[in-house]
From TrEMBL:
SUPFAM superfamilies: 6-phosphogluconate dehydrogenase C-terminal domain-like, NAD(P)-binding Rossmann-fold domains. It comes from Vreelandella neptunia. Keywords: NADP, Oxidoreductase, Pantothenate biosynthesis. It comes from the Bacteria. Residues 6-148 form the Ketopantoate reductase N-terminal domain. Catalyzes the NADPH-dependent reduction of ketopantoate into pantoic acid. Its EC number is 1.1.1.169. NCBIfam families: apbA_panE. This is 2-dehydropantoate 2-reductase. InterPro entries: 6-PGluconate_DH-like_C_sf, 6PGD_dom2, ApbA, Ketopantoate_reductase, KPA_reductase, KPR_N, NAD(P)-bd_dom_sf. GO terms for molecular function: 2-dehydropantoate 2-reductase activity.
Length: 306
């Protein structure tokens, strides 16, 4: 059985641990101890209890489990590098890492810094925690796996097959950078607006917000062009991006977006990983980003008030 360490025992981390445990040796690594028996609620509402192996990072040096074939990093984007730094003394520098973060912050930085393979996973699986001993798998999705320089295709294929076998449908891809930026574009158009206005995704279609969505997408589309990110669905520029955003708004109309959930819980949001790379790119390419910058400033002010 392959060995998977999962660093960051949150919603995605525990969903992975529940899914992989029947076919692989897994260890969840976190900052706090977790109850050993953990519950998974499936999208169909079934509930399963399973013992999940977990350790705190402080316990790791004296309890080091079998060396991992993969270390999955499942923290939020802004915590990924510091979480990795907390375990580097306990793993070989050639260990393959798998980054599950949204946005495009941790991926280029860790890919540049880590000597071994770094795979990135972008997923439409949906999960949230129901307590220290439970995770809700809210919706099934699909996961795409690849590395930024398309150097580790065989490893990405092996991981995609393992995830699929574990019940999390996955495909190896050669264009993970494109896919990460495409998801980031959609997240930038939806997440800050719903978080700032305390509305569900579907409300963006209303008169009060639709114009703002269009203004964000206008800036995002120009940035995507400069970054060489193909418009979605073989479409053309701004219209294709806007169509994708409206489609996601429609499909997730009843969702409370992740950034709104973070604001409600007074947790730091992933704005740095979503708006940050867009604003950075706009500056590099001399493009307008007043709307994105405005959203980032408002989000920063909101977070400072927590
Ligand atoms: N949930 C979802 O449906 C989806 C999430 N994603 C992405 O996946 C990533 C993870 O999201 P999600 O699982 O929802 O987030 P959660 O907040 O549920 O989980 C993050 C976990 O990371 C832990 N953590 C934070 N810092 C460290 C550290 N230094 N060392 C070890 N563990 C640490 C937290 O532990 P603690 O309790 O100690 O804070 C928490 O358990 C995000 O980038 C998100 O955008 C992508 C698609 C869907
Ligand atoms: C697509 C969207 C906005 C769906 O809610 C999402 O990915 C999120 O909540 O972060």
């Amino acid at each position: 059985m392959t060995t998977h360490w999962i660093l960051g025992p949150g919603a995605i981390g525990r969903l992975l641990a529940h899914s992989l445990s029947p076919i692989a040796t897994t260890t969840l690594l976190g900052r706090r101890a977790l109850p050993p028996r953990q519950m998974l609620t499936t999208p169909e509402g079934e509930q399963y209890w399973q013992p999940l192996n977990s350790l705190t990072i402080a316990q790791l040096p004296s309890n080091t489990p079998k060396p991992p074939a993969f270390v999955h990093i499942t923290t939020k984007a802004m915590a990924a590098e510091s979480a990795l730094a907390g375990i580097t003394d306990c793993i070989s520098p050639t260990t393959p890492l798998v980054l599950w973060q949204n946005g495009f912050l941790a991926q280029p930085r860790i890919t540049q810094a880590w000597p071994g393979p770094v795979l990135c996973a972008t997923t439409t699986e949906g999960a949230y925690l129901t307590g220290d001993d439970g995770v809700m798998h809210a919706g099934r999705g699909h996961t795409f796996v690849g590395d930024l320089h398309d150097q580790y295709g065989a490893l990405a294929e092996e991981l995609a097959q393992t995830l699929t076998q574990a019940g999390l449908a996955a495909t190896k891809v050669c264009d993970i950078r494109q896919r990460l930026w495409q998801k980031l574009a959609v997240n930038a158009a939806i997440n800050p607006l719903v978080a700032l206005n305390d509305v569900r995704n579907g409300e963006l279609r209303g008169e009060a917000y639709a114009g703002h969505v269009v203004a964000v997408v206008k800036e995002v589309a120009a940035i995507m062009l400069a970054e060489g990110i193909a418009p979605p669905n073989d479409g053309n520029g701004e219209d294709a991006w806007l169509a994708l955003v409206w489609q996601v708004v429609e499909n997730t109309a009843n969702n409370k977006a992740s950034m709104l959930q973070d604001v409600e819980a007074k947790r730091p949001t992933e704005r740095g990983a979503i708006l940050g790379p867009l604003i950075g790119s706009a500056h590099r390419h001399g493009l307008a980003c007043e709307v994105l910058k405005g959203l980032d400033d408002e989000m920063a002010e909101l977070e400072a008030s927590f």
